[in-house]
Amino acid sequence: MAKRQIYPLEPLFGRMLSPFEQFLRRATAGGIVLIAATILTLILSNSTWHTAYHAFWEQHLSLHWGNWIFDQSLHHWINDGLMAVFFFVVGLELKREFLVGELSSLRDAALPVIAALGGMVAPALIYHWFNPTGPTADGWGIPMATDIAFAIGILVLLAWRIPRNLIIFLTALAIADDLGAVLVIAIFYTPALHIKALMIAVLLLLALLLFNRSGVRHTLPYLLVGLPFWYFVILSGIHATVAGIFLAFTIPARGRILPDELADNLSAHGQHLRDTITHSKRLDPLVNGQLAGIIQDIRNVSVAALAPQQRLEHAIQPWVTFAVLPVFALANAGINFAHISVNMLFSSVTIGTCLGLVLGKFLGIGLSSWLAVRLKIARLPAGVRWRHLLGAAWLGGIGFTMSLFIGQLAFGDPRLREEAKLGILLASLIAASIGLLWLFQVSRKKGDVPA
Questions:
Q1: What is the pTM of this model?
Q2: What residue intervals traverse the membrane (predicted)?
Q3: Contacts of 356 (CB under 8 A, 6+ apart)
Q4: How high is the pLDDT of residue 308?
Q5: Is the model's pLDDT at 200 over the cut of 60?
Q6: How far, rounded to the nearest angstrom, does the alpha carbon of residue 87 sit from its chain's CA centroid?
Q7: Window from 56-65, 118-127, 151-160, 240-249 with minimum mean pLDDT
Q8: Contact at 8 Å (CB) between 178 and 94?
């Protein structure tokens, strides 16, 4: 059998790039990159470049086609466009969890769903306690969301000390929490509806559903119809992120061929490949068209066995983790510490947001979980003790990405946005620190073995 020639620089670049590739594959990588982007944002917004930093995101980017113009600031392109991609991936994850994951059966889903519900209601009530009326009352949705990237990233840091089922529980909780946040955005943070644009969006959604029911498994038709669907959702007054969720739910979750068909096809192509290699003098696919065709057929049949939902999730997830969310943090997490006053630090928005996230999430997740288990509606995951679950409840108070996003929707006043942002940053830091220390202390005691 001919051996592939190894060129001199290939091993060198392999050794140089290997640590970087290993980092990207780590479950904590997304959280680390998001933290780095947040730190960079805080540095820029408190440096001599802070004016240029804020002015940059207000630059406008326009699309023109004849008399049609779509003009938005970079800040809006990120929040309405890139975040729709983020919510599209969230929708793909939700669909997978509902079909085959932790939310696929009522028994498995009961505890994380009930915990997520309690973890949304309690923070909203605490915020409302401090902001019962006036323009600040609209921010009740800000402390309701858990940042899945940060929370899971911290849990994975302790993976060797905690039960594996605790990571699964918090992941399912955060996904259910994301669904709740999307519903809150769609129902309570939609200022006005434009019926004509909404009707067009509904027709496009019906077309997407028809694609699914008709067995269309190519992703291109969904994306071609999905773009105008996103546009008309924006025009309708509903936030564009909701379009990402709905589009994701129309993507097929079954491949074009079944696994047994794949096995038969691969066997036939494999035999054809062996025969071609045996009778060919040129074994380079670059010059042997027949060999290249067989390899391409093997690739095509393998892709056909994967569901479009899987292909899109695997293709887009890295871009969301390492590009969309860091860019969102750069555009939205900046706060100038020189502007922080005692009044701002102790404002009702800052206090309500901070306490809602830190205490509200802990009490809401903890009490609702205890009640569900006590009433025998749900049960603790195998290997998970109450002290583990309470540690995860503290981590639920990390509300960074989604909370910042809802804060932008809730308040038009820049001062209130800054106060909400301060409360979110403080709460996320406090919740992450308490959760990390709590789980580090309580884990791996006698009888605790990761499951």
A1: 0.72
A2: 23-44, 74-94, 106-130, 142-160, 167-189, 195-211, 223-249, 316-337, 349-372, 392-411, 423-440
A3: 122, 123, 124, 126, 127, 142, 143, 144, 427
A4: 85
A5: yes
A6: 7
A7: 151-160
A8: yes
Dihedral of the CA atoms 274, 275, 279, 284 (nearest 10)? -40
Using CA atoms, how far apart are residues 308 and 26, in angstroms rounded to an integer? 24
Q: Whole-angstrom Cα distance, residue 313 to residue 71? A: 29
DSSP readout, 271-328?
HHHHHHHHH-S---TTT-HHHHHHHHHHHHHHHHHS-HHHHHHHHHHHHIIIIIHHHH
Q: Compute how many other C-beta atoms are within 10 angstroms of the C-beta atom of residue 104.
A: 12
Determine how many CB atoms are found less than 10 A away from the CB of residue 303: 13
Tell me which amino acid residue 386 is.
Answer: W
Query: Which whole number is the average pLDDT over 190-219?
Result: 88
* Amino acid sitting at position 434: I
Which backbone phi and psi does 61 adopt, to 5 degrees? -125, 125
Per-residue pLDDT reduced to its tens digit, 335-393: 777 778 888 889 999 999 999 999 999 999 999 999 999 998 988 888 889 999 999 99
Alpha carbon 409 to its chain's center: 18
